[in-house]
Amino acid sequence: MRLGSSIRRRRGQGPRRRKKVQGEASGRGFRVAGYAGLLATIALIGFAGGYLVSTRILFPAPVPTGGLVEVPDLWTTAREDAQSRLRQFGLELGAVDSLQHPTAPAGQVLGQGPLPGQLAVAGSYVRITVSLGPEQRPVPDVRQLREEDAREVLEGTGFSVAVDTAEADLPRGKVVRVIPEPGTEVSLPGEIRLVVSTGPALVEMPLVLGLEQAEAEAMLDSLGLVVSEITTRFRFGRDQGRVVEQAPPPDSLLDPGSFVQLVVGRRSRRGGIGRN
Q1: Longest dimension (CA), the chain
Q2: 26 exposure class (CB count in 10 Å sphere: 0-12, 13-18, 19+)
Q3: pLDDT digits (tens, 9 = 90+) for 158-187
Q4: CA torsion angle for 119, 121, 122, 128 (degrees, to 10)?
């Protein structure tokens, strides 16, 4: 009986020991976590302190020599005015770039850095970009070209084209005149005006019926018409030696150099054909 009781006591003590061991392990875990948190806090404080020491003591940022000023608006001003305006605000003109611009006159400010309204340290530099003005090119000589060809050349060079017409000796559709004159330097995209021929002025066929042959030929020659054929026809009375028929008829509109045919009265029945 005593042996059994002893065994029961020992078996009963087993669970109590296991609970004690588990409690000790849990306490040790809390202590390790606390140490880790403390070390992390110390590391963070050390890093922050090192950063402050390096940026404030060992490698401090340069201290501005002056106060901050607002950058003025320089756009559309001339370069010389920009420099004087910057000095009024305690700033200096820095690098100057330039570029061609189709409308802005030469020397006008097209851009700046820093931008207007930004803050800058007094005495610092402001960069600007100024216009070189529009690009200029000489006017090509397109006289005596057809209108379509002349337009293609001018527009390919960068010019715009306007067209007028006028009567001229050149064939219809060809360029008679270029305004401005070829070779003139013109800013792109300047306008070039072409004067295009509508052809020679038309000649009105006069009435030469009843005129002596020589008189009729002289009149037609003075108008730039050519008597290409003279035919004679027997006529009585005063029509002998005079023009009795003409082609084209009177009041016809003809190009200069057009041919005219005349029929002249003759005295005998024996006829012939004369050519001028």
Answers
A1: 191
A2: exposed
A3: 999 999 999 898 989 999 999 999 999 999
A4: -70
pLDDT value, residue 46:
65
Instruction: Record the tokens describing residue 42, joined without a space.
Output: 């110390």
Give the residue carrying structure tokens 């017409």.
Answer: 165
Secondary structure of the chain in the HEC alphabet? CHHHHHHHHHHHHHHHHHHHHHHHHHHHHHHHHHHHHHHHHHHHHHHHHHHHHHHHHHCCCCCCCCCEEECCCCCCCEHHHHHHHHHHCCCEEEEEEEECCCCCCCCEEEEEECCCCCEEECCCEEEEEEECCCCEEECCCCCCCEHHHHHHHHHHHCCEEEEEEECCCCCCCEEEEEECCCCCEEECCCEEEEEEECCCCCEECCCCCCCEHHHHHHHHHHCCCEEEEEEEEECCHHHECEEEEEECCCCCEECCCCEEEEEEEECCCCCCEECC
Mean pLDDT by 10 residues, the chain (276 residues): 44 48 50 59 64 56 67 92 93 93 90 95 95 93 96 95 93 95 93 94 93 95 95 86 95 92 85 48
Q: Residue 212 is which amino acid?
A: E
Contact between 191 and 184 (Cβ < 8 Å):
no
CA–centroid distance for 20 within its chain: 91
Q: Which residues pair with 69 in a beta bridge?
A: 120
- Contact indicator for 71, 119 with CB cutoff of 8 Å: yes
Radius of gyration of the chain (CA): 54
Record the tokens describing residue 82, joined without a space. 């920009």
Q: What is the pLDDT of residue 66?
A: 56
